[in-house]
Task: inverse folding
């Protein structure tokens, strides 16, 4: 941090960022540093109804979040703007009809453009893609295209899960489970121009039968490579990983790799371009996690680790820095919403913080979005759509020369509150 003197007094030559005070108060003028911990605020109602159902949320730059969710058999979208402890919700926009009881996946192409893949159930089930543009809190909806048409009889659900992953600002990989006899994974690359979607060739991604039954997850390692975690829903639940490489709209598929012999319901978050954290449901339906190292298209999984011995059916992890992960998770029926944080050392995972919320959350709707470097919003459905602001990587006053100094507090803050901090403008 750089200081300078002028006739008006001492000025800080830096910028102001917002963080969350940890377990003690912070006073203006204190040097502050990061600590591991959680500080949360009261849940805010984002919308009056959500069908206790599917949702997907993404950050649009700092302090803005786009949420796609199901309401009365319609796919809707809202934009939330976050300033300090206040969430301002834009007008709900209908994106598509008849999205009832099927999965939704949103991915940000830029700070003003979102791609959504979703299943549509009317007389039968198709998989669709659509682009929405965002101006302020206003959403403009493009024209949807069919990504994969139903091949089964009328009324058959074909898509148990869908994941969309942005590859830069003009390309998306969409992955889904196809309900043929063996539930294989499929994928397609779409190019985006404005709100126009051009679909590539559909490709089979996994040779593991029953691998597209339900809960998969994918993260982009870079603009060309995507890591996929998926389960095997046969007589036993296994968790697999594979890497896909994208060249234009052509998909090259790596080898399926065992991640866990007790895996089901995977959700991944990127730690670094060659390291991925995968949270999943394991033995006794408890929360497990492992770190995967990726070299080219080869996956080396670390030790599968029990993180918390509570029923965890719906889960959503997010990376706060390269060695710190926050996970929100809840059981398969009405129950408590839990938070778990983990420290990562290479492939070793250590649980650092656990917390339980009194809110009841249905298992269909849960998503965590990091809207600044160290602040998150936990979005969930419980008859209504809620958002809860959480500081997962908090700060505290320090006088120790052994700690890395973040900056200087500009404002006072009690524990759990937002504090303005002068940080270097670098």
Result:
């Amino acid at each position: 941090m750089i200081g300078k003197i002028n006739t008006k007094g001492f000025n800080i030559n830096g910028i102001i960022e917002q963080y969350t005070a940890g377990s003690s108060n912070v006073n203006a003028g204190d040097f502050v540093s990061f600590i591991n911990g959680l500080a949360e605020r009261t849940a805010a109602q984002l919308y009056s109804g959500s069908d206790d159902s599917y949702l997907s949320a993404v950050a649009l730059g700092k302090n803005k979040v786009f949420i796609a969710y199901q309401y009365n058999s319609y796919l809707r979208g809202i934009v939330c703007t976050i300033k300090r402890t206040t969430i301002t919700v834009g007008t709900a926009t209908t994106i598509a009809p008849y999205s009832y009881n099927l999965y939704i996946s949103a991915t940000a192409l830029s700070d003003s453009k979102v791609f959504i893949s979703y299943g549509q159930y009317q007389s039968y089930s198709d998989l669709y893609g659509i682009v929405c543009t965002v101006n302020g809190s206003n959403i403009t909806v493009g024209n949807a295209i069919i990504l994969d048409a139903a091949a089964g009889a009328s009324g058959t659900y074909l898509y148990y899960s869908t994941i969309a992953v942005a590859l830069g600002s003009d390309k998306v990989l969409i992955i889904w489970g196809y309900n043929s006899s063996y539930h294989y994974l499929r994928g397609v690359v779409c190019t985006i121009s404005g709100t126009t979607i051009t679909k590539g060739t559909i490709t089979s991604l996994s040779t593991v039968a029953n691998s597209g039954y339900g809960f998969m997850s994918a993260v982009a390692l870079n603009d060309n490579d995507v890591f996929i975690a998926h389960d095997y829903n046969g007589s036993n639940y296994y968790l697999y990983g594979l890497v896909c490489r994208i060249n234009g709209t052509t998909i090259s598929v790596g080898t399926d790799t065992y991640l866990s012999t007790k895996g089901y319901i995977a959700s991944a978050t990127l730690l670094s371009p060659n390291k991925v954290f995968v949270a999943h449901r394991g033995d006794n339906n408890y929360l497990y996690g492992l770190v995967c190292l990726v070299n080219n298209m080869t996956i080396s999984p670390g030790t599968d680790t029990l993180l918390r011995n509570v029923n965890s059916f719906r889960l959503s992890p997010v990376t706060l820095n390269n060695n710190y992960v926050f996970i929100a998770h809840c059981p398969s029926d009405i129950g408590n919403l839990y938070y778990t944080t983990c420290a990562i050392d290479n492939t070793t995972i250590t649980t650092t913080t656990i917390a339980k919320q009194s809110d009841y959350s249905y298992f269909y709707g849960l998503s965590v979005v990091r809207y600044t470097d160290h602040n998150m919003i936990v979005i969930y459905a419980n008859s209504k759509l809620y958002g809860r602001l959480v500081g997962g990587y908090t700060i505290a006053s320090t006088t120790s020369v052994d700690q890395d100094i973040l900056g200087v507090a500009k404002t006072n803050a009690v524990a759990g509150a937002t504090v303005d901090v002068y940080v270097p403008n670098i």
Remarks:
- Residues 106 and 116 are 4 Å apart (CA to CA).
- The chain has one domain: 52-357.
